[in-house]
Amino acid sequence: MSKNILITGGAGFIGSNLALKLIEKKYSITVLDNLSPQIHGENSPLYNSIKDKVNFIKGTVLSYEDWKKALKGIDIVVHLAAETGTGQSMYEIEKYTDVNIKGTSIFLDILANEKHSVKKMIIASSRAIYGEGKYECETHRVVYPIERKDDDMASGDFNIKCPICSCNVKIMATDEESKIHPTSIYGITKQVQEQMFMVMGKSLNIPAVAFRYQNVYGAGQSLSNPYTGILSIFSTIIKNGNHISIFEDGKESRDFVYIDDVVDATVLGIEKDEANYEVFNVGLGEAIDVMTVAHTLVAEYGSNTNISITGNYRLGDIRDNYADLTKIKNKLGFEPKINFKDGISKFLKWVNLQDVSEDKYTQSIEEMKEKGLYK
């Protein structure tokens, strides 16, 4: 079995947890990471947990030379390094496209044109590539709605409409054959990354695997990054004694999957040939609305934090999406082990041991207001 694995973004949330798991399984790990202050930084517990256990290269995926250095003797590449955050991507377009698309193109260019030892490659895709997920219309059955209209949301109607008859539709689990139509720059970049991996994998005869991760959370995720991770954002707000303002009507939902399950799924993709040239959803397979998340956190923290529904909304946000896990269960034998209740309990125990991070969420909203993306 190939034993030398490169994890780009390996000092981040998913990457560091994956690295530790693979080290347990006797793999030799190289990490390429720029230690971005927004995500973690050089004093991050995630970085400290791996720095003495891996071959660490501080560098960027935008550097040809950093890629070349990191790829020496590597058998498998897990490409996690990316700019993340739907909202921020809508006004930092160049940064998101550079890191996510150009960074990926440099790697694939090396595979196509230079000698290397890579035998398999994994790309971290995202549920964001689906945009709005799969829905059922009473009249037209399975439909894939387009993005919601600004006028509808401005009037307080946040429901998803059938693209044919404009009636309200019912959410369904989104499978891998569902329509891909991202509604954010972030989603577009993840779609392009995934397609580049799958096309070049087949072209170069290097097995490629794409994982469309849902909302990943758990012990170790950043509590200071206000652009991604609703559980960490709400936790930081609560810990600072501030109030939670919920977008739309609070009924928008997401699929929350615990980090341990994400790592397990990714390891299966690394080790199983059945994963080769395939794309897989990775999630819990349940839709949990934002209001439920907020009330659960406030109750579990024993806080008196006020929760209000603002009716405001962000352009680029989707209404609902949760994963159909049939394919990954059948092909790889993956089954999420940690339900939402247990996952929240594990997450909160960890948060309660951390120093209180500065609440930067209001600042992030102000940035979006300035760009006309927050209504």
What does this structure look like?
This protein is an alpha/beta fold and 375 residues long. The chain folds into two domains: 329 residues, Rossmann fold (3-Layer(aba) Sandwich), CATH 3.40.50; 38 residues, no CATH class. Helices cover 37% and strands 16% of the residues. The protein contains 13 helices and 16 strands. The strands form five sheets. Strands 3-2-1-4-5-9-14 form a seven-stranded parallel β-sheet, sandwiched between helices. Strand 2, helix 2 and strand 3 form a beta-alpha-beta unit. Helix 5 runs parallel beside helix 7 and helix 8 runs parallel beside helix 10. The radius of gyration is 20 Å and the shape is globular.
Number of strands: 16
Strand numbers in spatial order across the main sheet: 3-2-1-4-5-9-14
Oligomeric assembly: single chain
The biggest sheet amounts to:
7 strands, parallel
CATH topology name of the largest domain: Rossmann fold
At the first level of CATH, what is the class of the largest domain? Alpha Beta
* CATH architecture term of the largest domain: 3-Layer(aba) Sandwich
The residue-averaged pLDDT reads 93
Task: Name the CATH superfamily classification of the largest domain.
Answer: NAD(P)-binding Rossmann-like Domain
What is the helix tally?
13
Series of H and E elements: EHEHEHEHHEEEHEHEEHEEEHEEHEHHH
The value of Rg in angstroms is 20 Å
What is the distance, rounded to the nearest whole angstrom, between the alpha carbons of the first and last residues? Answer: 53 Å
List low-confidence stretches.
Answer: none
